[in-house]
Design a protein that fits this description.
By secondary structure, this protein is an alpha+beta fold. It has six helices and 13 strands. It has two domains: 3-184; 194-282, OB fold (Dihydrolipoamide Acetyltransferase, E2P), CATH 2.40.50. The chain has helices spanning 24-46, 81-84, 95-102, 132-138, 141-155, 233-239, and strands spanning 3-13, 52-60, 64-73, 109-112, 118-123, 126-131, 162-167, 172-177, 194-208, 217-221, 224-230, 251-262, 269-282. α1 runs antiparallel to α5. The model has no long low-confidence stretch (mean pLDDT 87).
């Protein structure tokens, strides 16, 4: 099977590396980050059956620089390096260039572009376009952690001032200073949370109640059991007084708010709030 091969050099510059030295933990994290970035990206773009190999082929004197070779099947699989931004100059829509534009911010939402293989990322009123393949890489926590391990974490060390990747001809593909490397730190949440809510009148049964708190009440609604929060202050005062209504075994009409919180990469979270209890029971 025909193969494609690309050689790259990765270096860290600064006083800490004047004698071609690096802390072994930093080297291990860098190597692991690069290897994971390539391997996970390949699986996301080409599938789990697509093989790829990352080799460390040597070290160069001066600062601290190691050489790698990425070998992958050339026929039926896509070349993943351009998607990452490691082939020639990092293009505007590559993973690394998009991360540079995002500057560590969470993505608000992703908009599909009709009749196109592209998507538009919406971030704090800005729009960033990229391919669907790059969008898949951005959505992967493993990919984002690998980028952080490769670029951000090693540059936090004292005496490391510059990160650089060059191609086999010596052309610089990516260069980041210590201050700019923070753009590649993965946020705790990759996508901003979106909240939707709707109110309606509903018939419910109270299953458990608490005189001392407004949350973790249990109700039966449409044949299902839910935990709810009570926001009807008058009703809560009645519960705490001698005028407390007989809650159990009867249906009540309430103003019920359904809240759905969504973020890409996780299941939606649904919660309920009772905003008003109409104290008269419904037969």
């Amino acid at each position: 099977m025909a193969e494609r091969s690309e050689s790259l050099s990765i270096s860290y510059d600064g006083k800490a590396h004047e004698h071609h030295e690096i802390e072994i933990s930093e080297l291990a994290k860098s190597l692991e980050g690069f290897g994971s970035l390539v391997e996970v990206s390949n699986k996301l773009i080409n599938g789990i059956d697509a093989s790829i190999e990352v080799k460390v082929t040597g070290f160069k004197p001066g600062s601290f620089e190691y050489l790698v070779e990425v070998v992958q099947a050339a026929s039926q699989y896509k070349d993943i390096l351009p998607y990452i931004g490691l082939a020639g100059a990092a293009t505007a829509g590559s993973l690394l260039e998009v991360l540079k534009k995002l500057k560590g911010r969470k993505i608000d939402f992703v908009e599909d572009v009709k009749n196109s293989d592209s998507v538009v990322l919406h971030v704090e009123g800005e729009k960033v376009e990229c391919s669907r393949e790059v969008d898949a890489l951005l959505a992967s926590k493993d990919v984002r952690k690998a980028v952080q391990d490769l670029i951000y974490d090693p540059t936090r060390s004292e005496g490391t001032e510059l990160f650089k990747i060059k191609d086999k001809s010596g052309k610089v593909i990516l260069q980041e200073s210590k201050s700019d490397a923070k753009n590649y730190k993965a946020p705790t949440a990759l996508y901003a949370e979106r909240k939707q809510s709707e109110e309606s009148e509903a018939q419910i049964k109270f299953l458990t109640a608490h005189a001392d708190k407004s949350n973790q009440w249990r109700i039966e609604y449409l044949g299902q059991t839910y935990n709810v929060k009570i926001k009807d202050e008058l009703f809560l005062e009645l519960i705490q007084s001698q005028e407390s209504p007989n809650l159990f075994g009867q249906k009540y009409t309430v103003k019920l708010e359904k809240i759905v919180k969504e973020a890409r990469g996780r299941e939606p979270k649904t919660s309920y709030v009772i905003k008003k209890v109409y104290h008269r029971s419904v037969k």
